[in-house]
Amino acid sequence: MKDMNSEGYTTADGRKIGGVLMEMKNITLRFGGVAAITDISFDIRDGEIRAIIGPNGAGKSSMLNVISGFYVPQEGEVWFKGYKRGPMKPYQVARLGIARTFQNIALFDGMSVLDNIMTGRLTLMKSGLLSQAMWWGGAQREETEHREKVEKIIDFLEIQSIRKTPVGRLPYGLKKRVELARALAAEPKLLLLDEPMAGMNVEEKEDMCRFILDVNDEFGTTIALIEHDMGVVMDLSDRVVVMDYGKKIGDGTPDEVRSNPDVINAYLGVSHD
Ligand SMILES: Nc1ncnc2c1ncn2[C@@H]1O[C@H](COP(=O)(O)OP(=O)(O)OP(=O)(O)O)[C@@H](O)[C@H]1O
Description:
GO terms for molecular function: ATP binding. By secondary structure, the protein is of the alpha/beta class. It has helices at residues 60-67, 90-96, 113-119, 129-134, 136-156, 172-185, 202-219, 230-236, 254-258, 261-268, and strands spanning 2-5, 8-10, 16-17, 20-31, 34-45, 49-53, 75-80, 83-84, 98-100, 190-194, 222-226, 239-244, 247-252.
């Protein structure tokens, strides 16, 4: 990483990263007496791949849910695109340009791959039922545009051959790819990935890694992910936040994090599987 400032920085591999897209300021989140997150601050820069890692129960999922707007922290502030974000409904978050995948795949098993991916565009669709009835040509044109965008994503993620297959019949790795496709269909500015490699074999992990890098490169999508697999995270990410027992114990490039003694003690020295 070179010349980190408010305008951005340049990664070791020469990519230009922009200014702050999202900022978490002193976030504290409690469930009854349990503090899942204690006073954590960090930012996510425009165009970067940012990982949040940590042992079981460290608070990663809780943090992803704060970023996605699903949880509202008791203390602290969330800033996105220069505005302080208040409590929001999921569709409002989607309209802001934030999309996510889930650890336990959340797709419609009985529906085809294509139809599942189309659901990702729902928040972008202007035509409701009434306007479709009154303005049929316009609605058709809109439908065609949505289909074209979705077909582009299908090509990009190399899932043309399964576009008509019901999702329930697909192997796990492909379901994960379809979920990524659906999230991308919303054309997010910030894409949140919840343990994208969980449960995958080595080959599936390599594929997923390649697609995440390609999405970032091709669409310029900023990506924040939580992940257990240390190796994958270190290969993929520009910067990494490390959590342990709800606190932030490290934040920096993969190399910086790897050599941080607190991180080594809390995370790397322990087996978590
Ligand atoms: N809905 C909830 N109600 C009560 N406690 C919760 C809830 N969600 C999380 N917690 C607690 O908050 C702490 C952080 O949990 P969280 O799931 O965020 O960690 P994690 O790092 O994602 O763990 P894992 O890697 O096992 O998924 C844990 O002590 C957990 O038991």
